[in-house]
Amino acid sequence: MQKNLSESDVAERVESLLARMSLAEKIGQLNQVGGADFAPGPKAEDQIRAGGAGSVLWLNDTKRFNELQKIAVEESPSGIPLLFALDVIHGYRTIFPAPLAMAASWDPTVPEQAQTVAAREARAAGIHWTFAPMIDIARDARWGRIVEGAGEDPFLGAAMAAAQVRGFQGDDLADPERVLACAKHFAGYGASDGGRDYDPVYLSETQLRNIYLPPFAAAVKAGAATFMSAYMDLNDVPASGNRFLLRRILREEWGFDGFVVSDAFAVGNMVIQGHARDGRDAALRGIKAGVNMDMSSYTYANHVAELVAEGALTIAEIEELVRPILALKVKLGLFERPYVDETLLAQVVARPDHRDAARWAAQRSMVLLKNEGGLLPLKKDIKKIAVIGPLADSMSATEGSWMVFGHQPAAVTVLAGIRAKLPGAEVTYAPGPEIRRDIPSWFESFMAGETRKPPQTPEEAAAAFQLAVESARAADQVIMVLGETDLMSGEAASRASLDLPGRQEELLQAVAALGKPVVLVLLNGRPLSINWAAEHIPAILEAWQPGSEGGHAVADILFGDVNPGGKLPVTFPRKGSHAPLYYARNLTHSPEGSPMYNPRYWDGLPTPLYPFGFGLSYTTFAFSNLQLSAAQVKVGETLTVSVDVTNTGAVAGDEVAQLYIHQRWGSDTRPMRELKGFARITLQPGATQTVTFPLGPDELRYWSTNAGGWIQEPATFDIWVGGDSQATLHTEFEVVA
Ligand code: NOJ
Known about the structure:
It is built from 23 helices and 26 strands.
């Protein structure tokens, strides 16, 4: 393995490559070729042979990688190796919990380990570059892609973004077990109007800088090699033609020296979007904005040479965009080791530590939402258990989103996990009526899984309903596994309602009416408005899309081998129409709870069903002794906050200490609470640990509309520390000039 080359060695090699490349080859490096049937454009081989391709995506075939690489290296004019790219979002073969779930661990080592494993497996398959992490802040639970990110909060999101970059890339890009990361989708995609995927986004600079950009800034700081420009219009300018984002912020302010790839077809799409006049104009806009690589729209391939010939673009402008692409190929060691050993993948994916890591990640990601009367954990001597629900034995729902391109779902389902945990018990299974999207997903055509069956008839659904109720009637304990299928969240998977789809709630009510003890396990990729369940079902476990080992992890928690300690990275609204709902809102002139001009809506409480940061444990915790290193600090100084966390229950468990601040006045109004510190700790019964958090300029500054820049101001600040965003343990301090 070649060790970190010096930047000047890399630059020298890049210049010598550029010196021997034709203009056509330089433009070729900016072209990313689709390797799948649905991708339009000329045959991949022909483009590669002509030196017209820098990268290939949507291909997941080790042998084919080597074949195409051979063409690039041996037959193309300058022999520049290809970068193979794929969406490895939460695992390649060993599937980890979806990113939203991993954020619920509130433990950055979870996504870091997960992406380390994902990188090792993907690289063994021949993939050099993943289109992850997805680090869009999402405050609207209707938006399907909320599952791919870390939820609503910039502080938590930044921590998860950096952790994933470290996991994918390690500290040396030449490490043959790592891949290039791609921070996406730059920027603001999560704020689409109405939560409708792809719709325009309008964000003030203040919202962008304070809320949507921090995870991206953290990704740059962590060394993210590449960025992906988003699809949608940001303030009426497509993100893939957006100079403010791609030039001013990313490169000038943050000093990003990697390269930017557009989202799929996004350069060409600027014509459809009503921004560019035609393909030629779109290419010009993409290049001028600083999009280095055109993902599969062939707009650069078709128009850049002509733009250079006409003098609309210079060769220097093209070379500027090619340089970081070549530099990363050099850093990866692709010129020395362009091929992948075709026997490697089988060995790597068989590593038992990968499965162990996935199970651990799933255990840490789950959130206990309710546990009335200590129903959980269940005793292991139960004789007859009914496992019920359309997702209870669904491998694809267990693995979750982004399992495309030939991946065969192979998850331990909740049913299988329970059976493995209790080999002596009688465990019956009834799916109940199936659930389906009203409008099918385009992505279904790529899935190897269970979604392609013809729809159930109403009679079949009624029979399945009855069967499920009967199986519950015959059991001592019922475990309902409800939620959303994998394709109900993710790309092009927004919805207007957050209710349990189909007849799931009706089935839950029918089963609950039998008077048996019922535990609800949720498999889903977004907050769900489970109001009825929250009121009537004694125990609820949010398991998200838990990945390959998900069923084992659920059983570990249900039967008490693991004490859950995850916390919600998103607010759970009571209704879809309450979205976007998030904790870090401004106070307003009529703070919630004050009698004047309230309520916010007159048709029901707009407060969260479950607040951000919320999650229970099989034990209880108390926070006390909130101390500050100083009651007053000067602007620019750092103070330390400390708090004692005590396990006041009878079993060991994890608590996430969360620190929230509020700046009481200033140039701009600040949110009523903002997360500025968190730590997940494990405590034995009776044990106390002191947790400390720094609060300095990084935590106290903000982008101000009135000041037109970053500021830190003298003001009084509130501090709360506790186990969720409604923590009550409070103190305050002063920042002075
Ligand atoms: C479109 C998606 O928006 C993006 O997240 C993904 O990486 C690309 N397609 C490539 O598959």
